[in-house]
Write a structure and sequence with these properties.
With 239 residues, this protein is of the alpha/beta class. Helices cover 26% and strands 25% of the residues. Helix 2 (63-70) links the parallel strand 4 (54-59) and strand 5 (77-82).
Length: 239
């Protein structure tokens, strides 16, 4: 598979939203509204526009609210991966949902960012750069100098071939991970549905030189705190 749009997506939506308190005391983070839409609806709408037919959303915290909201959507078709008995973190949640996702490359989304398309839709940019022969993970990354609401020092360096390396001990890195990636499920081989971070999978792909990045050319907003909700909402409404 090369340059072909994935046909399914995973949404990592089961977290507790601790950094978003008090907004998340009664509302799950993916349902907090910015720019007139719930956070999770921004990427779901992108999926629908790209023609991706299926999505899986994992739920744990305030799961009934999530399920009720997702039942109102028709496109894409949404299946629920229930983690109400045990929160599995990003990696374990992906393993648990794998039977619902299939064995082909999939999009994976976090639920605390808003990614606005540039000249080419973000999902199309990722799909156009995907090559199953060479990659297990392909991340959409954003230049730090134009990132909104991101308070970190950057996540990755990128070489001329798109290969990523972690910031490590460097004071800063030029790119932030946007929360959107394509992964091939083979990278989950041998893993069990127990709590572990997706960082384990990224490190595996990095060590094998099978993790690359694509630079996003639109606007990107990290919405990780109550203050970022206010700021992002104002910026999106002004657009």
């Amino acid at each position: 598979m090369s340059g072909i749009m994935p046909q399914a997506a995973m949404f990592l939506a089961a977290g507790l939203g601790t950094r978003m308190r008090p907004l998340t005391e009664h509302t799950p983070k993916p349902l907090i509204k910015v720019g007139g839409k719930a956070l999770i609806d921004w990427p779901l709408d992108q999926l629908a526009a790209a023609g991706v037919p299926r999505a899986v959303v994992n739920v744990h915290y305030l799961a009934p609210q999530m399920i009720i909201h997702l039942e109102t959507r028709r496109n894409p078709a949404i299946a629920i991966s229930d983690e109400t008995e045990q929160l599995l973190d990003t990696g374990g949640g992906l393993v648990k949902a794998l039977p619902l996702l299939g064995g082909e490359p999939i999009f994976v989304f976090g639920c605390d960012t808003v990614t606005l398309d540039g000249a080419t839709p973000a999902l199309t940019r990722l799909a156009d750069h995907w090559n199953s022969d060479e990659q297990d993970v392909l991340m959409l990354v954003h230049p730090m100098e134009t990132a909104h609401g991101f308070d970190g020092a950057g996540d990755f360096f990128m070489d001329s071939d798109g290969r990523l390396t972690r910031r490590g001990k460097a004071a800063r890195a030029p790119y932030a991970y946007t929360g959107i990636q394509i992964i091939h499920p083979r990278i989950l081989a041998g893993e069990k549905a127990v709590p572990f971070s997706m960082n384990k999978l990224w490190d595996r792909a990095l060590a094998a030189h099978r993790l690359k990045g694509v630079v996003h050319d639109g606007a990107w907003f990290h919405v990780g705190t109550p203050g970022a909700v206010v700021t992002t909402d104002a910026l999106l409404r002004a657009r």
